[in-house]
Amino acid sequence: MKTMTILVLHLGFGGVEKTVSNLVNMLHDSYEIEIISTYKLYDTPSFPIPSDVRIKYLLPKNQPNKKEIKEAIRKKQPLRLLSEGFKAIETLYLRRKTMKEAIKTCRSDIIISTRVLFTEWLSAFGNPHSIKISQEHNHHNNDEKYIKRIVRSCKGIDFFLPVSRELTDFYSERIHNGRTKVIYIPHCLDYFPLKPSDYLLPDLVSIGRLSQEKGPLELIDVFSLIHKRCPQAKLHLIGDGPLYKEVKEKISTLHLESSIIVYGFQKHEVIHEILQHCSVYVMTSWQESFGLVLLEAQSFALPCVAFSSAQGAHEIIMNKESGYLIEHRNDEEMAAKVCELLEDKVQLAQMGCAGQKNAQSYSSREIRTQWLHLLNQI
User: pTM of the prediction?
Assistant: First the structure.
């Protein structure tokens, strides 16, 4: 059996980590897989990893300390800031040293990098006899410096897999090093509900990290407009993050405590239960490289409404068929489209059905076939 090594920063919560979990669950019966993770954030991985997959943590006792540094700055604690600063420098040094060494000594048949930093080291120091694959999970957002970094990092890479069709087309026009093949294999869904949403409640749901790029404060503004037209509607907001306190404060200021439920982080079973009884999924992200959460909503037959600035949403939402893409981040238009769906059950069901059909094309069986087709060519 051929061997495969996957390079990750950590196995905590996040889109990349979910993707890694899905990948190893799809391929572990065909490959002997190990995961090399820089950090060990929790005692066990946040997403399921098969027991026969070996996990090696490079820095099990070191943790990223951005939160502590920000807190020291906020509380004006110079000595603590100095201490945390030295700790961060040491951790970054060790992150580089240990991962470069792991790459240099890795003899797996296939090595997969999950971020550009690791791709740079894999390209420079990876075993010349290994097949090297790089996954790109982020959108460049027209950052020319980042784009050039991606292109340079692929110099010693055999296959480069961007997260979306749009990015695949974009980098195909820029990567011409005579070696790297740019290929699109989408993320997959590892769970499909036995039955779709029943649309019993005129409720909305949004899932994601409560951070600036996800637009949670603007989501509350949008819902306040929805609430005026559809006062019976509720918003189920699932996720945690640095803006949690501000989100709660804004809800209180707008007197929406009885209409917006903030759950914080929740396990998949709880999320599935909420999706089962909601009617529309709403996304106010400024940017999304793919939008796996939209697929999850579609698997429950929920129409999705998102701002067009979230590039990944274009990949998932068939505008006016399975939901709406709102231009120019127009809060009033988003609120109007959501209310139209809540008031028209026929349209709601039609769009939900179209979305559910789209989600089925991202099943783990479909995506596994694409991965095996690629790997069997090697």
Answer: 0.91
